[in-house]
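[Discussion] Sanity-checking designs against the backbone

I'm trying to build intuition for which residues belong where. Below is a C-alpha cell string of 145 positions. I'd appreciate it if someone posts a full sequence so I can compare it with mine line by line.
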C-alpha cells in the first residue's frame, strides 16, 4: 500500500510539473506571437507573468527576462537564481559530498570540511544548505566558552 501511494505521488508530481511547464511554454509562445504582431504591451505582460514564476521555471524566467530587455523594459528585477538539481543521481552525489563534509567537521578537520561544503555548493549552486554548513574556524567550546 505504501509503495502504491509513493508511486501515485511520484506520478502526480511528474504530471503537475509537466502541466505547469506546458503552461509556461504556452505563455512564452503567446508572448512571442504578440511581440511579432506588434502588441508590445501584451507581450510585456505575458513575459512578466512568466518572469513572476521564476521559482518554478528559472530557465524560462531567464528567457522571459531576456525578451523583456529586448522589448526595452529596464525594470526586470534581479538576476534569476540558478536552477536546482532535481536529478536523483546528481542529488545523491551532492549528498555524499555533504556527508563527507559533515564527517570531516565532526572529526574537527575544518579545512577539509570547508573544502567539501564548497564542492557541494559548486555542484548545486541553487542549494543554500552547503553554505549554512560552513564549519567554525576553531572548535566550539575549546577555549571554555
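Best answer:
Here's mine. Compare freely.
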Amino acid at each position: 500500500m505504501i509503495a502504491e501511494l509513493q508511486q501515485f505521488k511520484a506520478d502526480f508530481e511528474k504530471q503537475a510539473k509537466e502541466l505547469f511547464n506546458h503552461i509556461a511554454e504556452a505563455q512564452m509562445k503567446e508572448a512571442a506571437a504578440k511581440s511579432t504582431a506588434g502588441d508590445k504591451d501584451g507581450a510585456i505582460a505575458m513575459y512578466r507573468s512568466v518572469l513572476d514564476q521564476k521559482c518554478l521555471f528559472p530557465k524560462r524566467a531567464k528567457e522571459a527576462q531576456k525578451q523583456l530587455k529586448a522589448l526595452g523594459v529596464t525594470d526586470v528585477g534581479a538576476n534569476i537564481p540558478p536552477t536546482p538539481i532535481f536529478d536523483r543521481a546528481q542529488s545523491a552525489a551532492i549528498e555524499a559530498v555533504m556527508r563527507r563534509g559533515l564527517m570531516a567537521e565532526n572529526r574537527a578537520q575544518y579545512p577539509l570540511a570547508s573544502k567539501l561544503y564548497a564542492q557541494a555548493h559548486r555542484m548545486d549552486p541553487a542549494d543554500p544548505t552547503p553554505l549554512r554548513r560552513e564549519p567554525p574556524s576553531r572548535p566550539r567550546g575549546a577555549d571554555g566558552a
